[in-house]
Design goal:
Blueprint: E1 3-5, E2 22-23, E3 33-36, E4 62-68, E5 80-82, E6 88-94, E7 103-109, E8 130-137, E9 140-146, E10 150-156, E11 165-170, E12 184-192, E13 195-202, E14 217-222, E15 233-234, E16 251-256, E17 259-264, E18 271-276, E19 284-289, E20 304-318, E21 324-335, E22 343-346, E23 353-357, E24 379-380, E25 393-394, E26 409-417, E27 420-434, E28 439-449, E29 455-457, E30 460-461, E31 472-474, E32 485-487, E33 492-498, E34 506-514, E35 523-536, H1 546-554, E36 565-571, E37 578-585, E38 589-597, E39 602-610, E40 613-620, E41 627-635, E42 638-646
């Protein structure tokens, strides 16, 4: 297994007025896009957004689906947990086509397998909720979500089975005399024995003030398993004046062996954590990343030179010795004289994950530089899976699909145990590439360090491998741009979450996948699928390049059998009647031609002979329904797949 120093590879893109061409990584200062930072109320019902008529689907172990595609407004949340006996449970915000059906989906891993994938209208609560989280409580479990009037708590005494008992935790009394209470939104939770810790945000609706403040983070605690609750209090050092970006999903609870952390971050915020060793009675503040803006920074009026900031994703873990480990995403931004109130300029393709632990000094940023993140030794950039020492990309801004403010490599999750630190995260891929929309996919990756982040083992794309190697093939093209592992059903894999502790020497994780990069930001017309996996800890970091994966997949004798299919092209594409397939083969062979829809259903199949050189076939698609299809040609030595759009 190869080890590499974690020196970051920065990737920048610029707007292109001409055709897209592959270029090498470079540093460019052209401003690409401005985006407005807007507060959330937590119970938005957006207008229905019509998306292309595509059945979204992915490969893997589906545990649920949802039409609501806002998984998080910031960092990864506490949505999957494991139990000491090797079982696990996961939750997600589910919804059918009607926003009123929104609630918390749930699935349970019984030690052998996850339960069947659930219909998107199946929820735990009896009322409309969102952004549910889960944690073990005794021999049972507790799920907390927000409803707009308070937090909805669902508890049961035996995990994985039995009836949920639902209660409501009302928000604190408002201080302006016109409302009786302010709601609690976007909760995070940790449990220590019978002590339940919940932190949440008061609403951003104008006039709903708490202790004179609009939108603050409050902390509530129960010391008897949720039977009674103490009054909500303001968390110390968590006001705007404390360089805190108080908004949705910018806090996360972590606990282990008597240590309790509330980790915080944001675009215009320090990255820091509050630490308690006495179950929330007292707290100390620990700085991880110093926001480069002024203490009175305002995204409406304050200018900010070009610099790196937190991309609103972050996480922490506590190891067996009590040492705190933190990882957070970054992004290159700027606010200049041309910036409108509330708008930032950011650079597509920028952003790495920075690692930190309690033995290190806080990160500081030098203004007006492109090199600050690259100069940090404890950083992780985009994986270079094809082993050519260059990360390639197409230099057009529309190829980069954003998820709020997250960078190209983002959404870290950590587990620290047994002298190692495991990291799960997402990163934009060189390839596969969604040619029909000219957009890059994201993959979910895992890596591990046994020296507190100084070096990281090889980055394994778990959203590709995931112990279903029979579903995958290698598309080996003899060009500099390609040559990475691709999947039969290429999908966008995003929003990874890892359970904070392993069980039976396995790491439990979940993420979300559909066919189209990007997030609509509300109710969609197609479902997004939720996937759950359990992966042995020892398997993290074992794949280091395409050659090793190729050998593992095909494993033919003492060597590698060459994929004799060099290229396949389809035209016209999109089409509505006939399509022509041009297939280039290195030798004569028999092949199976299969067309599937994105649910994996075969809609056309034919055995065809291939001659060495060029081959041409026609398919009549006049009876195909409109949508996306996958055309696959497979021989004994390999396969090639292209996407087809039918109008």
């Amino acid at each position: 297994m190869k080890k590499v120093l974690s020196i970051v590879v920065l990737v920048f893109t610029v707007s292109a007025l001409f055709a897209q061409v592959p270029v090498k990584t470079s540093k460019m200062t052209t401003q690409l896009q401005t985006v407005k930072y807007s507060p959330k109320t937590g119970m938005e019902i957006p207008d229905e957004i019509i998306t292309p008529n595509i059945l979204r689907n992915g490969t893997g172990i589906g545990i649920g689906s949802t039409y609501y595609d806002v998984v998080s407004n910031g960092t990864s949340r506490n949505t999957i947990t494991s139990f000491p006996d090797g079982t696990a449970a996961a939750v997600w915000t589910t919804a059918g086509t009607d926003a009123a059906t929104r609630g918390t989906g749930y699935n349970y891993f019984n030690g052998t397998a996850w339960g069947p994938s659930l219909d998107p209208t199946t929820r735990i609560e009896s009322v409309r909720t969102g952004f549910g989280i889960i944690a073990p409580l005794g021999e049972g479990e507790l799920v907390v979500s927000h409803s707009g009037t308070g937090l909805v708590l669902n508890k049961r005494t035996i995990k994985g089975t039995g009836t949920w008992v639902q209660t409501t935790l009302a928000g604190p009394v408002a201080s302006n005399g016109t409302q009786t209470s302010t709601s609690l939104l976007w909760p995070t939770m940790a449990i220590q024995g019978d002590t339940i810790h919940i932190a949440a945000q008061t609403e951003s609706t104008a006039g709903y003030l708490y202790q004179g403040y609009q939108t603050v983070t409050v902390y509530v605690r129960s010391t008897d398993g949720g039977a009674t609750w103490e009054d909500a209090i303001l968390m110390p050092g968590m006001l705007h004046k404390d360089r805190v970006n108080v908004s949705a999903d910018k806090i996360k609870f972590v606990e282990k062996n008597g240590t309790l952390l509330l980790v915080c971050g944001g675009l215009a915020s320090d990255v820091f954590y509050l630490k308690s060793l006495d179950r929330g009675a007292t707290w100390t503040r620990h700085l991880v990343f110093d926001f480069p803006g002024a203490d009175d920074f305002s995204s409406d009026t304050t200018l900010l030179p070009q610099c790196y900031v937190n991309d609103e994703t972050f996480t922490a873990a506590i190891d067996d010795n009590g040492l705190v480990h933190v990882a957070f995403g970054t992004r290159l931004v700027q606010r200049d004289e041309d910036s409108q109130p509330g708008y930032w300029t950011y650079w597509h393709g920028t952003g790495e994950i920075l690692y930190w632990n309690e033995t290190m000094q806080p990160y500081t940023v030098v203004m007006d530089t492109l090199n600050e993140v690259e100069d940090q030794p404890y950083s992780i950039g985009r994986p270079n899976l094809d082993g050519d020492d260059t990360i390639w990309f197409l230099n057009a801004s529309d190829t980069w699909v954003g998820y709020r403010f997250s960078g190209a490599t983002s959404y870290p999750n950590l587990v620290a145990e047994g002298g190692k630190v495991y990291m799960l995260y997402t990163s934009t891929l060189e390839y596969p590439f969604m040619f029909t929309e000219s957009q890059y996919y994201r993959g979910v990756f895992a890596t591990v360090s046994d020296d507190n982040g100084l070096t990281w083992d090889d980055q394994a794309n778990v959203s590709w491998l995931s112990y279903h190697r029979d579903l995958y093939y290698v598309d080996w093209e003899s060009t500099e741009l390609y040559g990475e592992l691709t999947t039969f059903n290429e999908t966008e894999n995003m929003w990874p979450v890892m359970a904070p502790k392993s069980a039976n020497n396995k790491l439990f994780m979940m993420w979300y996948a559909d066919y189209i990069p990007g997030s609509i930001g509300g109710m969609a017309t197609n479902t997004m699928n939720v996937f759950g996996y359990d992966i042995p800890k020892n398997d993290i970091g074992v794949f280091n390049n395409c050659q090793e994966v190729y050998q593992n997949l095909w494993n033919i004798g003492d060597g590698i059998q060459e994929n004799t299919l060099s290229e396949m092209k389809i035209y016209p594409n999109p089409a509505s009647n006939l399509v022509t397939l041009n297939i280039l083969s290195k030798e004569s062979s028999n092949a199976n031609l299969v067309v599937t829809n994105l649910m994996g259903q075969v809609v056309y199949t034919q055995n065809v002979p291939l001659e060495a050189g060029g081959n041409q076939f026609e398919i009549n698609i006049s009876n195909f329904s409109s949508g996306f299809y996958l055309v696959n040609v497979r021989t004994k030595t390999g396969s090639s797949t292209q996407k087809l759009i039918v109008r």
